[in-house]
Amino acid sequence: MNRRSFLTLMGGLGIGSALGGAKSASAAGGTFHGYPDSKGVLHDTTLCIGCRRCEQACNKVNDLPKPEKPFTDLNVLNEKRRTSAKEWTVVNKYRLASLDKDVFRKSQCMHCEEPACASACFVKAFTKNPDGSVTYDPTLCVGCRYCMVACPFNIPGYTYDRALNPLVQKCTLCHPRLQEGKLPGCVEACPTGALVFGKRKDLVKIAWDRITAHPERYQNHVYGEHEMGGTAWMTISGAEFKEVGLNEDLGTKAAGEYTAGALGAVPMVVGIWPVLLGGAYAITKRKEQIAKEEQNDAVNAAVARTEEEAAKKLQASLDKAAKEAAKEKDRAVADEVKKAVAEAEEALRAQLEAEKAEAVAKAAEEAAAKAAEEAAAKAAAKPSKPEKGKKGKHDTNGGEA
């Protein structure tokens, strides 16, 4: 149900109830005092350097719109900013003459122990969870923005730029991440330890331990320990809290104790009108749900078609690549076989040449040996002849020479 149709319906039913003189009942009852083991964050402003990494982490983990200026641009700190539908946390700079330096403080949902937004919301769109976070269910919201009016810290933002079904937006203490056992994005990204996550009761002790150990550094107070009944997000500071943009006049009474009385004065129709109101509300929500489901079905069908076409194109590309790879593989195998054959032929030729040379050398050696052997035999078989011109010891006459 959108805001316009809801207010129109409420106006019509309100007139009817006034004319009918119907009875009334309180819109809000008792108070809730928080979960004993709930988690929280302690922000130590003396350690904050204004780097804006917490803002960047918040933007990323919650998939928020990108800012006009990058998170590295620290000039934005020169102007005071508040949280919005697009910025669930902001860091502001405070120039304090008393300390002669700049002090930085991070602002976001305080996650009250007894949230004013939850007390003011008559459709129960806000929930205080056991982990300490305060979360919002957009499917229940009717856009009345009572939560924005009720919040003592002026935190919730509203998507005014959404003509259809605008939403309330705020920090969730990274509830989905807590469910997975992870730290809040801002705490994980802080480079100086200015943000500490843990059980709220432990954080209170840590805060007072720091104040006691260094009284000259801190104010003697933990902001959020008791303000508005206590908050999951607490702050310690060297400067007065009002100097860093925190309201010091909120008191310690929980918001529910205020909103219960205020909403109790609002006549809620008893009798037939609640049935009509509930029925009309349920019918309108059902129509919106059906329209949303039809839109989701159309989107899912389009996505399925796109995925199917993409899968076909991918398979065709893979088949083509496989064929090309097979061809390339065949060519590579053929080249390798050809190369191996050529190398084998070359090796065989070299081996044959070597064997041929060896055979020739052996034949030559054998021929030479045979020739030498024949020459020796021939020489041994030939008779010796006397030398010409020589005479014997006796002459022809028998006398001595």
From TrEMBL:
Keywords: 4Fe-4S, Iron, Iron-sulfur, Membrane, Metal-binding, Repeat, Transmembrane, Transmembrane helix. It comes from the Bacteria. Residues 39-69, 132-161 form the 4Fe-4S ferredoxin-type domain. GO terms for cellular component: cell envelope. It holds the Pfam family Fer4_11. It is found in: Cell envelope. This is 4Fe-4S ferredoxin-type domain-containing protein. The lineage of its organism: Bacteria, Pseudomonadati, Thermodesulfobacteriota, Desulfovibrionia, Desulfovibrionales.
